[in-house]
Amino acid sequence: MSDSKLISKIPEGPLAEKWTKHKADIRVVSPANKRKLEIIVVGTGLGGASAAASLGELGYNVKIFCISDSPRRAHSIAAQGGINAAKNYQNDNDSIWRLFYDTIKGGDYRAREGNVYRLAEVSNLIIDQCVAQGVPFARNYGGLLDNRSFGGAQVSRTFYARGQTGQQLLLGAYAALNRQVAAGSVKSYPRHEMLDVVLIDGKAKGIIARDLTTGKIERFGAHAVVIASGGYGNVFFLSTNAMNSNGSAAWQCYKKGAYFGNPCFAQIHPTCIPVHGDQQSKLTLMSESLRNDGRIWVPKKMEDVEKLRKKQIKASQIPEEDRDYYLERRYPAFGNLVPRDVASRAAKERCDAGYGVNETGLAVFLDFKTAIERLGKDVIKARYGNLFQMYEKIVDVNPYEEPMMIYPAIHYTMGGIWVDYNLMTTIPGLYAIGEANFSDHGGNRLGASALMQGLADGYFVLPYTIGDYLSHDIQTPKTDINNPAFEESEKAIKDKINKIFNIKGKNPVDHIHKALGHIMWEYVGMARNEPGLKKAIEEIRALKKEFWANVYVPGENNELNHELEKAVRLADFLEIGELMAIDALNRKESCGGHFREEMQTPDGETLRDDEHFMYVSAWEYKGEDQEPVLHKEDLVFEFVHPSTRNYKD
Amino acid sequence: MDLKLKIWRQKNAKDKGRFETYEVKSISPDSSFLEMLDILNDQLILEGKEPVAFDHDCREGICGMCSLYINGRAHGPDSEITTCQLHMRKFKDGDTITIEPWRSAAFPVIKDLVVDRYAFDKILQAGGFVSVNTGGVPDGNAIPIAKPKADESMDAAACIGCGACVATCKNGSAMLFVAARVSSLALLPQGKIEGARRAKAMVAKMDELGFGGCTNTQACEMECPKLVSIAHIARLNREFLVAKLRD
User: Facing residues of A437 across strands?
Assistant: First the structure.
């Protein structure tokens, strides 16, 4: 079914000329008129901060909202490994085309060619911008920028700042933002949470936000609204996302009519610290960059596995010939640097076969022995010192002496709000950028590409495309927050909060969230099948009923109340989880991180069905307890030929 | 492990606040400190009581949100960590643990263990940036930077803005925080250009916001989870002096 709202607006013409042509074709707003226009940006991670700063510099009046006490806390800060760009500084035959190709292949041919090419095209500008801001990227002794390798690529194109690349890039964008706050073009609203988007005559004209410190519900008007609130990985309860990361801002857009794209595409990251018990609240990621020098293995012999579990031997005592470096064995061409989805499934396969190396049987080794022998401890320390320290603090094992133990965990959501080439959702005036949109990573995101996309959208795409929309609004007065649409929306939010408060049931928020996480991990996690997904939908619906009948939120509404914040988000997670399962059930193929057990090759690789599923699923909300409606955006490949992803040779 | 917790409870900024004592049982030594508080909160909620409010987010030691003063130390009894990286194996069965918010005139308490650190944002807004707009900048490799300089800049840029330095300082000074930003940028040619102006503006804002003066006790460096060195304060002072001399 094609749909009149699902027009991707990819420009015609040769791939390399699309963005240039589009920029020439779209309208701009004069400086005098920009001063009259207001933009709301929700979220202050790499996407939101870079967008808000750039829009402020252009002269728009910007309001930014974040749930933390400062924009700098946004979870982009925790990205460790790096950011990709097609600079070809290493002379290893990298190019915009190669970065484009790796990304579209890495995403298992479920992203748009036009978007991905543009992403690769602007990647180089990002590095220049960050350097100019004073981001202290790693350098070599000649004073030039250094690179390292990441999964899914055979070139070294990843720029990094030790193991804190996300932090440094965010501090750069945050500094640019601070400069605009000081200049008066950006107004900052920390500890504020967007609870609804307000539409007037079908266009996004503002938001309703809750001041998390006072509980006050406030109205904010604008000419356009930008959602940069990140992904919804915390639907799984345990994930590498920050504790406060949530999908609620994006979800309110969906409920107001924005289509939601590919909700089932979630990334499971292969290198996380394994779960230690049932009292855990959060999983910790170990950077993918570790796979540059770390080798992943499990024992070949079951007797060694048993001894390891009983702590009768240490991993370092197992001789070389008794180790199964299963990624090197299965994927000789890419080895330990296969994409994340492939590495995660391979770890699961070994653990399911009984070779998991910790007490729970859900862990594999990531070993630096060979690299330390080859390069020396000092080199390894210079490259990964802070990650090794982090590991040791958490696990109490020295990774210079014993291999790390890792296991896959939920990390990122490729799915998100559907947007066109201009990053506009199906609601006019409502934009979604960064992880909050669905657009660039298809079924699997390559490492070091999230930072690239967040900053590409915020610095170099949205500031151009939003002007095209706003150029029609130069005569439009400021949005009146006394408009009935605001009143209605505010009332609905207040009612919802009161309803949650007044349930006064017996079940704490986290208990229900953990139960949701178990359902998601079991049935909508690394391996999915039809009966499991149907069961998940049923169980999530029951859990949703339990929430609305029996959740308990202590405290008061008119003050800082973390339990209330969590409850409001969980109400949405329950609905997001259900849509993920519905989407996963619909997509009867395996691609990227979406692995349907019914669809696999004899050697356990993903089996795509291009004939039936070469499309973006875009779901339309139809109301409380109504089935959502699926719309399909067909993916057209003019420039690359979708083939079976091969990381073997 | 069974533990006794003495925790600061304060309903809001106006409330006087007081310590309350709680007990938690069967805590795994592998649990993180914040997971232990999660367990306490779960217990409180099930008893129909209000949970303890504390700031936290990434739980990986990088966002700078967590901010607890534990047994008289910012981020508790371990070095080079944030509160979220502290693990219960650092305590003994039967211990009594005292937990307070950051104490500083510039960081008013919002509730229980949560403080308002917006003053840090304001200091950075005063000058903690390089004045370049998006676009129109030179190629990344057009500005070579000696590796030791870039590395030292990164050492300072590792600051997570948690405020442990302020909470630890007997004067409540934010010098290490300011120095980290000023020094990180001053070490790079891009940032050097407006170095003096930046130092002056940020120090002036720090003073205006009610942070105390620096008397070189070095306590900040001892408790900094990212080991930001007080050598950066020396560089800040140099930049500041240059600015003053130009006045």
Answer: A417
Give B108-155 pLDDT, tens digit per residue: 999 999 999 999 999 999 999 999 999 999 999 999 999 999 999 999
How many residues are listed for chain B in this entry? 247
Nearest-by-CA chain A residue for B34: A281
Judged by phi (left if over 0) then psi (alpha if -120 to 50, else beta), residue A504 lies in left
- Class of the CATH domain delimited by A484-608: mainly alpha
Cβ separation B57–A54 shorter than 8 A = no
Token representation of residue A337: 């640097």
- Among left, alpha and beta (phi > 0; psi -120 to 50; other), residue B59 is left
**Nearest beta carbon to residue A69 from set B51, B118, B140:** B118
Residues from chain B contacting residue A452 (CB–CB below 8 Å) = none
CA B166/CA B210 separation, integer angstroms = 11
Q: From the CA of B244, how many Å to the nearest CA of chain A?
A: 22
pLDDT at A3 (0 to 100): 64
Alpha-carbon span B217 to B215, nearest angstrom:
6
**Residue A321 pLDDT:** 97
The answer, for B210 touching chain A at a CB cutoff of 8 Å, is: no
What gap in Å lies between CA A4 and CA A14, rounded to an integer?
25
Task: Inspect the interface and report whether the beta carbons of B57 and A129 lie closer than 8 Å.
Answer: no
Dump pLDDT digits (tens) for B33-87. 999 999 999 999 999 999 999 999 999 999 999 999 999 999 999 999 999 999 9
Write the residue in B124, B137, B141 that is nearest to A89 by C-beta. Answer: B141
* DSSP structure class, residue A627: P
Domains recognised in chain B with CATH numbers = 3-111 (3.10.20.30), 117-246 (1.10.1060.10)
Q: How far apart are the CA of A604 and the nearest CA of chain B, in angstroms?
A: 34
- Given a cut of 50, the residues of chain A with pLDDT beneath it are 1
B73 CB neighbour count, 10 Å cutoff:
17
| A600 neighbors A590 (Cβ within 8 angstroms) | yes
ipTM of the complex: 0.98
Instruction: Say whether B134 and A171 touch across the interface (CB within 8 A).
Output: no
What ranges do the domains of chain A cover?
A: 269-409, 484-608
Q: Test A128 with B140 for CB contact under 8 angstroms.
A: yes
CB pairs under 8 A between A and B: 220
pLDDT of residue A310: 93
Same fold, A269-409 and A484-608: no
Q: How far is CA B119 from CA B6, B162, B178, B202, in A?
A: 28, 12, 12, 11
CATH architecture of structural domain A269-409: Alpha-Beta Complex (3.90)
pLDDT value of residue A81: 85
Active site residues of A: 340
Q: Which of A123, A281, A283, A395 to mutate to test the interface with B (most CBs of B within 10 A)?
A: A281
Question: Where are the alpha helices (H) located in A415-556, listed in sequence order?
Answer: 450-455, 462-470, 484-503, 509-523, 530-550
Q: Supply the pLDDT for residue A648.
A: 83
- pTM listed for this prediction: 0.97
Q: Which two tokens stand for residue A574?
A: 């329950």
CB contact under 8 A, A244 and B125: no
Q: Mutating which of B67, B86, B129 best tests the A interface, going by the most A Cβ atoms within 10 A?
A: B129
CB contact under 8 A, B184 and A136: yes
B153 vs A: CB within 8 A: yes
Cα(A562)–Cα(A566) distance, rounded to whole angstroms? Answer: 6
CB under 8 Å to A509, separation ≥6 — which residues? A551, A552, A553, A563, A566, A567, A570
Of B192, B158, B159, B60, which Cα lies nearest the Cα of A161?
B158
Q: Are A160 and A83 in contact (CB under 8 A)?
A: yes
Are B59 and A145 in contact (CB < 8 Å)?
no
Chain B positions in Cβ-Cβ contact with residue A130 (cut-off 8 Å)? 140
